[in-house]
Amino acid sequence: MTKSSTKTRVRYSETDQMGVVYHGNYAQYFELGRTEWLRKLGVTYKDMEISGIMLPVISLNCNFIKSAIYDDVLTIETFLKKEPMVKIEFEYKVINQNDEIICTGSSVLAFMNMKTMKPTRCPDYLLKSLGF
Fold first, then answer.
1. Would you call 8 exposed, middle or buried from its count of C-beta atoms within 10 A (0-12, 13-18, 19+)?
2. Largest Cα–Cα distance of the chain, in whole Å?
3. What is the residue extent of each domain of the chain?
4. What is the rounded distance in angstroms from the CA atom of residue 13 to the CA atom of residue 57?
5. What is the pTM for the complete model shown?
6. Contact at 8 Å (CB) between 108 and 89?
7. What is the C-alpha to C-alpha distance for residues 13 and 21, in angstroms, rounded to an integer?
8. What is the tens place of the pLDDT at every residue in 20-48?
9. Are the C-beta atoms of residues 75 and 7 closer than 8 Å to each other?
10. For a Cys-Cys bond, which of 95, 97, 124, 126 suits 73, CB 3.0-4.6 Å?
11. How far apart are CA 39 and CA 43, in angstroms?
């Protein structure tokens, strides 16, 4: 699986006084898409951390196209960019209920050994779940 779709509704607390989603919340939408993408593979951040792996974000990019507003239903499409090695790269598309693209973006996360705090290779169980 290289693509996943996750839906969420814009909550009031995510908006500014004009009812527009505050730009900083898009990082959380990307995280929601990413964690649900993993969950659909049968992997959770909790499981990875129990096994001694963490995934810090080392790069984040967001391109704003249209405003999302309070009560919009957003679909976060999450795409795996390529086979993960020491890093895993995602692309995102956030679409509203009218099929309008709200924003696009990308993130890069590094697999880190929690004991040594050094980069490590993608766990074999994740590669297997991805078919690599």
1. middle
2. 47
3. 3-130
4. 24
5. 0.93
6. yes
7. 9
8. 999 999 999 999 999 999 999 999 999 99
9. yes
10. 97
11. 5
b/e map 85-110, b = 16+ CB within 10 Å: eebbbbbbbbbbeeeeebbbbbbebb
| 9 token code pair | 């509704």
List the one residue out of 75, 71, 68 whose CA is nearest residue 6. Answer: 75
In the predicted model, is pLDDT for residue 127 greater than 70?
A: yes
Nearest CA-CA partner of 55 in 88, 104, 98, 92: 88
Torsion sign (Cα): 2, 28, 66, 13: positive
- At 21, list the tokens: 């989603």
**CB atoms near residue 34 (< 10 Å):** 23
**What is 3-130's CATH topology?**
Thiol Ester Dehydrase; Chain A (3.10.129)
Q: How many whole angstroms separate alpha carbon 57 and alpha carbon 110?
A: 7
